[in-house]
Amino acid sequence: MSLDNDFVRAQFPAFRASSLDGQAFFENAGGSYMCQQVITRLERYVTERKVQPYYPFAASKKAGEEMDEARQRIAACLGIETGELSFGPSTTQNTYVLAQAFRQMLNKGDAIIVTNQDHEANTGPWRRLADEGIEVREWKVDPQSGSLALEDLHALLDEKVKLVCFPHCSNVVAEINPVAEIVKTAHAVGAVTCVDGVSFAPHGWPNVSKLGADIYLFSSYKTWGPHQGIMVVRKELAFKLPNQAHFFNGEVAYKRLTPAGPDHASVAVSAGMVDYFEALHGHHFKNSTTPAQMCEDLHGLFAQYEADLLQPFLDYIRGKNGLRLIGPDQASKRAATVSILCQEPSLNISTKLAERGIMAGHGHYYGMRVLEAMGLDPTHGVLRISMSHYTSKAEVNQAIEALDQVL
């Protein structure tokens, strides 16, 4: 089975927009194009349902039904109970709320573990707990590879550790970490796990139950949907953590960690991401299955397609003088997000690429700590070329040709 890239691209209006004609989009790690299924729902919602939901009049009732539909269908895709899924304005904000809840639950002398491989969203809010007397231990990357070693985690773990926070994969290093193994290791000492899946989920939604994670976070605006954060908190933990919402919402698991009401439209139209998955699965597999299995099927399809795109690009970067590839040089070990240290500041390179129709990122991408740990200057930054399953082989060739001209 191989991915039908033409069918995929037909689901995204951006590829038919005249204003984007001839330009190849390679900053998918910062935010993806939105699929037609989400756009269709968004237009309908803001036109016909843009009222306070859950009242008995028709527009309000339909608004609430669409919000419930989104939560139910996304939860099923992730292999969790509906009540374990929360929506918030962003993953950063969701993590901040979680940190406030843990601040109330932890005691002085307790310890947590964070990494310096993470996006700042899954390290900064947790590090602030040190102000409350919580010991913060840092799981450090290897300064050459940027990798996290399991033996280093073992050295940090003991009965004082109550929480371990780490990324499924870094938005700079992009190496895929062994989540299930890390979770099992943390659970062995009684610690809770918080996994930042923001950089992994765009390459295929995971089955959170199979991973065993207690908390799993990602952002729907990076998975072809609206701008919001999606947060999984397993039910037992959700009720153990102090309520962060209005007191009268304290008995509802998915409301306990949402202090303010979410963007109703963004919640409702998120069901369009599942519509998109169903269209892809139906086109490629021709058989019905459970939502969680559907996502596993698609993840395999995406992974193979992206690896085929990625490996020639990695080989090109590795063989180019004056460039340093950040993270593994094998596509099977990483997500399709490639950070490159160039001799010139990354802003200069991305500007020159933009003149040649290549939309790429520059800077530190809120991963300042990992760059500094690897001896790199965040102000110089790294060029980032990030692909998605809708990226075409022609676009990758266009990027290589443009890099040849620029470098």
TrEMBL record:
InterPro entries: Aminotrans_V_dom (IPR000192), PyrdxlP-dep_Trfase (IPR015424), PyrdxlP-dep_Trfase_major (IPR015421), PyrdxlP-dep_Trfase_small (IPR015422). SUPFAM superfamilies: PLP-dependent transferases. One of its GO terms (molecular function) is lyase activity. Pfam families: Aminotran_5. Residues 25-397 form the Aminotransferase class V domain. Keywords: Lyase, Pyridoxal phosphate. Gene3D superfamilies: Aspartate Aminotransferase, domain 1, Type I PLP-dependent aspartate aminotransferase-like (Major domain). This is Selenocysteine lyase/Cysteine desulfurase. It comes from Cohaesibacter gelatinilyticus.
